[in-house]
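Dear colleague,

As promised, here are the two records you asked about, laid out in our usual form so they can be pasted straight into your sheet.

NAME FIELD: protein one
SEQUENCE, THEN STRUCTURE:
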Amino acid sequence: MRKDYITWDEYFMGIAQLAAERSKDPNTQVGACIVNDEHKIVSVGYNGMPRGVKDADMPWAREGNFLDTKYPFVCHAELNAVLNSVADLSGCTLYVTLFPCNECAKAVIQAGIKEVVYGDDKYADTDGTKASKLMLKKCGVKLTKYKASGKTVKINL
C-alpha cells in the first residue's frame, strides 16, 4: 500500500488553495472548501465579484474613496462557498485559506457549519476578526488552525 498519500486536511486545504487561484484580486487571494462528514466536497468558493459583475469593470484598489476600492463589492470566499452550495451545510467543515471576517462568520453560523479549519490568521488583531472568533466560539463552532505539513504536490495545468 502506498504510504505517501495526503491526509484529508491536506486534500481539502489544497482544494481551498487551488480555488484561491481563481481570484482576480491582485493583493489577496482566498479560497474556501466546504466538506460534509462523509469527506465529500459540497461547495467551493473564492473571493471575487458577484455573479454577473464583470471583474474588469470593477475597482480592485485597497485604498482611496470607498466606492473606488474593492471593499463594497467583493464577495469573500467563505460567503461564495456558502451561497454556491446546493446542499445542507449543517454539520459541515469549512476549510479556508484566511480566517473568516465577522461578516463571513455570520454566514458560517447561519449555514450550520460546525468547524472552521483555517490557514492564515494575519488579521487576528483586528476588531473584525476578534468579533468573528467571539461569535463562532459562542455558537460552538470549532476553530482549528491548519498545520501545513510542508508536502509539495505538483499539478500541471
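NAME FIELD: protein two
SEQUENCE, THEN STRUCTURE:
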Amino acid sequence: MSKVATRFAPSPTGPLHIGGIRTALFNWLYAKNNNGFFYLRIEDTDKERSKNEYKEQITKSLKWIGVENDGDEYIQSKKIEDHIKIANILLEKGFAYKCYCSTEEIEEQKLRAKQKKIPYIYDRKWRDKPETEAPKDINPVIRFKSRIEGNSILKDLVQGDVEIENSTIEDFIILRNDGSPTYNLSACVDDHQMNVTHIIRGDDHKINTFKQMQIYIAMNWELPSFAHIPLIHTTEGKKLSKRDKASTLDDYSKIGIMPQALRNYLLRLGWSYKDKEIFTKEESIKYFNLEGIGKSPSKLDMSRILSMNEHYIKSIGENDLYDQLSNYCESYKEKIPNEKMGKIKSSLNFLKNKAKTLEDIYNNSKYIINDEVNFNQEDFKLIDENAKKIISDFLKEILKLDTFNRDKLEPIVQNLIKLNNTNFKGVGQPLRIMLTGSKFGPGIYDILTSLGKDEVIRRLDKN
C-alpha cells in the first residue's frame, strides 16, 4: 500500500477562507498521524482571477497556523499539458466526445430546465453523433461520457456510503473550446500524478467526487479514499463565505488571536476526541482521526474563539507571550521600543488579566509603551478640583518615599481616602486617568509600581 498522502488545493483568487484553513489542518493532521505526506497545490489555472498576492497570503496563513507542506508547492498551471494529454487519451478510448453545441443552444437548454424547475443537465446531443455531422465554424468542447445506467456508490470515510443515480451526472466538460482543461479533469490528473491517497475536502465537493471517480475508473487508475467534511456555518446557520466578517485568518490575527488558540479551536470545530478540549500540536497529531469528524455543519462561534485565546494567554510562558505580543504590535499597532521590553515583560502578569486577545494586552500596555499620556477626553472631564487636590496631595507624599512599592503606597492611598471622605475609586480613578489617560486599565498599584517613582512624579507633576 502507498504511503498516506493528502493535499490541500486552494485557488489564489482571494484570501484564504477560515473553512479552507480547517480543511488544510485536517489534511495535514491526517497525513502526520499516519507518518505520511501533506502537499500544497496551488490551483492557479483561472488566469484572470489568480493573483500572486493571494498565493502569498495562502502560504503565509498556513505557516502562521502551523500547517507546513512537504516539498515545494505544486503549481497546477505548470501541468496543463499533462491534463490535455489525459483528455485526448479519454477521447481516443471512447470515454469522451466532442460537443459542437453553440453557446445559444446551451443557454436555451438551461432556460428550458429553469422553466420546468428541474436541474439543468446537458442533453447529450453530440454523445453518439458521427464526426461527419460536425459544423465547420464551431470549436468543440470535449465532454466526458458519463455513465447513464445504474447507480454509483461513494464509500465516504466521514459520511458513510453515498449513492447517486448515474443519470443525474451530466456529461461534464473536460476541455473547453479554447483547449483549456476544466477543474474536474485538472484536479483528478494532479491527484493521480501526486500519488494522493486520501482526499479530504468540504462536502460541497461530493458531486465533483462522483465525476472524478469516473475519470479514475476510465483511466484504470487506483481510486484514492475520499472524506467529505461538513461545512462551517455562520451563527445564523448560513454557509460561511469569503464575504463574511471574520472569515479569513487576517480577521483573527489583527485583533490578536494567537495561532495555537485558533488552531485548537478549528481542530475542535466538527471533530472531537473523548471529552478533551485543549490539544498541543503534538497531541492533535497523535489523536486525530477521521472517525471523530461529525456529519453536521459546525457554527463559527466568536465567543468560543475568544475563550480559547484567553486560555492560551493565561497558560503560556511569559517569554512566549511577550514574543507574540511584540510581533502583533509590530504588525498591527506600533513597535515596542527596546527600552520598554523589560518593563512590559515583568508587568505581563497583570497586563494579561481579563485579556482575551493580544490587542487587549496592547491596550493595557499603552501607558508603558508611550511616554506621553494620550487622554480620553470624556475621562479627563472627571478631573475636577477635588481630584486635582487628591493628585497634588498624593504627589507630595510619594516625594518623601525612599522605597516605591505597594506596601509603602497603600497607607498613602488609605490616608487620602479618609482625609477626602471618599472611597478607593475616588482616589484610584483620578490617578489612573492622569497616569494612563483612561479610567479603565490595570489596578492602580500595578500601574504605579510598573512606571516607577520617577515616571509617576513626571506624569503627575507635568499634568
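A couple of things worth noting about protein two: The first helix runs from residue 18 to 33. The chain is about 45% helix and 10% strand.

Best,
R.
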